[in-house]
Amino acid sequence: MEIDGHTLDGREVRLPADGAKVTVVDFWATWCEPCREQLPELDRLSASLRDRGVQVFAISFDEDRAAVEEFVARTPVRFPVLWEKGGTRLADRLSLTRLPTTVILDGAGVVRAVHLGYDQGQAAALEREVRRVLAEDGQRAPGAASSASGGRS
After folding, report:
1. Three-state SS across the chain?
2. Are 133 and 106 in contact (CB under 8 A)?
3. How far apart are the C-alpha atoms of 136 and 17, rounded to whole Å?
4. CA distances (Å), 43 to each of 84, 127, 137, 145, in order?
5. Distance between alpha carbon 104 and the CA centroid of its chain, in Å?
6. I want to staple 43 with a disulfide (CB 3.0 to 4.6 A). Which of 29, 77, 90, 142 is the partner?
7. Which residues neighbour 144 within 8 Å (Cβ) at sequence distance 6 or greater?
8. What is the mean pLDDT of the chain?
9. What is the rounded CA–CA span in Å between residue 123 and residue 121?
10. Cβ atoms < 10 Å from Cβ of 95
């Protein structure tokens, strides 16, 4: 899965992230209550696993960029936030039907897990999934081809 876009501060981003062992991509919107609840948990995940090669990105599907900027100012996160006006382009291309949708990609960009929706119990499940993908990546021989077996795309 490949995604490109721009952060709120204008930097161009291409996902999966270069050099990341695991890339977590969260599709969200400010009007989505579960989305707003999940972002601080993703920030915690990012901070705790960044040194192990995990990179987190959030892509807002809001129509209004100012709403995203205001929310992030009130609820700061330490990972990049991208804005995809309305989300239609990505939602159609990736068959996204629900927010939040959180996708876990391995180092090769293969979708390893998809989490639909969010409640507090899912924070631990998401972290376990990320740690599982990290562990599997660590067991692969250097240069070995990545397999999509066991993952969803």
Report:
1. CCEEEEECCCCEEEECCCCCCEEEEEEECCCCHHHHHHHHHHHHHHHHHHHHCEEEEEEECCCCHHHHHHHHHHCCCCCCEEECCCCHHHHHHHCCCCCCEEEEEECCCCEEEEEECCCCHHHHHHHHHHHHHHHHHHHCCCCCCCCCCCCCC
2. yes
3. 18
4. 20, 12, 22, 30
5. 7
6. 77
7. none
8. 89
9. 6
10. 8
Tell me the sheet residues that pair with 22.
Answer: 54, 106
Residue range 28-71, pLDDT digits in tens: 999 999 999 999 999 999 999 999 999 999 999 999 999 999 99
Length of the chain: 153
d(CA 112, CA 131): 12
Residue type, 75: T
pTM of the model: 0.88
Label the pairing between strands 111-116 and 54-60.
unpaired
Retrieve residue 105's tokens: 């990609």
CA distances from 55 to 87, 95, 107, 114 (A): 21, 23, 10, 16
